[in-house]
Amino acid sequence: MTDLNTLESDVLAQVARAADLQALDAVRVAAVGKTGSISGLLKTLGAMSPEERKTQGAAINALRDKVADAIAAKKAWLEAAELDARLASETLDLSLPAPHRRKGSVHPTMQTMDEMIAIFAEMGFAVAEGPDIEDDFHNFTALNFPEKHPAREMHDTFFFNTKENGERMLLRTHTSPVQVRTMVSQKPPIRIIAPGRTYRVDNDATHTPVFHQVEGLVIDKGIHMGHLKWTLETFLARFFETDAVTTQFRPHHFPFTEPSAEMDVQCDRSGGEIKIGQGTSWLEILGCGMVHPNVLRACGIDPDEYQGFAFGMGVDRLGMLKYGMPDLRDMWSSDVRWLSHYGFSAFAAPNAASGLS
Fold first, then answer.
1. Domain total in the chain
2. pTM of the complete model
3. Does one domain contain both 81 and 185?
4. The Cα angle at residue 295 between residues 293 and 296, in degrees rounded to 5
5. Of 28, 206, 226, 297, which residue has the fewest beta carbons closer than 10 angstroms?
6. What distances in angstroms separate CA 179 from CA 6, 139, 145, 298, one per listed residue?
7. Angle at which helices 315-323 and 108-122 pack, to 10 degrees?
8. Average pLDDT score over the chain
């Protein structure tokens, strides 16, 4: 019968000497593998008397468990040491130029949205967010949409199946519900922008079923159209990075603002590109107006005490204008060649110190 104490000392010494995982696995196979020294002892139990089997079996099993625990502990230590060595040898200095051409980049839509947020943050606007799936009240009713307004129909809006109580949830058609939620939950003064994804049944070169908006809302005492005009002209000058921005406001109709207007910017369309701040053409940029008193009342705000203005603009379309992208649908094509051309470095986040783009 093999001396168990001697075998234990020998095997544990081999475990301790194992310099890597391969050597440790060789010790494991030699000790507790199918033909290992300890496994061989277990096979001899059948030839022993019941009394010997009882004592020797317990001793051999205890040895096997002790060796297995020692191997597991050494394996964990070796794996940790191997990981530490890899981490030490595979460090990467992110401040250094890439050794090869970069593959990933920031999508132009996200870059444009970050630029817009950076500008409005400088102007004192907070960022507010809301759910993509909305109810009729927040998306239409609270915003003064009449019951039979075309936007409530299936050909304009993505509706979900009607609930048992008759309510229909929908994919928000604008980020204006965020304005409603803010006015309901927050007392004036309010100054927010609401960036996010929106959904409408539309698809052509300048429209997609899914697009991005940034809407703005200011509620305070004594607010008038002059504040709205200054805010938007200041934003456009910063966004297009030119002081030569000329704008005009045309009367329009939106259910949630009164008076309402569309804002155009002067540009040059010759030469197959759009140049802001020059030329004699006009290009529609956004919709805006003074918040309708009915909207203020629906949100629990007294329109005789507080006034406000709101505006909304398409992020994707502004990105097209600024960076010369001809077709809005390309933004959703998942073409890496397109993204490699129009994409932005993730290390060039827009900010007031280093610039926008």
1. 2
2. 0.66
3. no
4. 65
5. 226
6. 80, 10, 15, 12
7. 100
8. 85
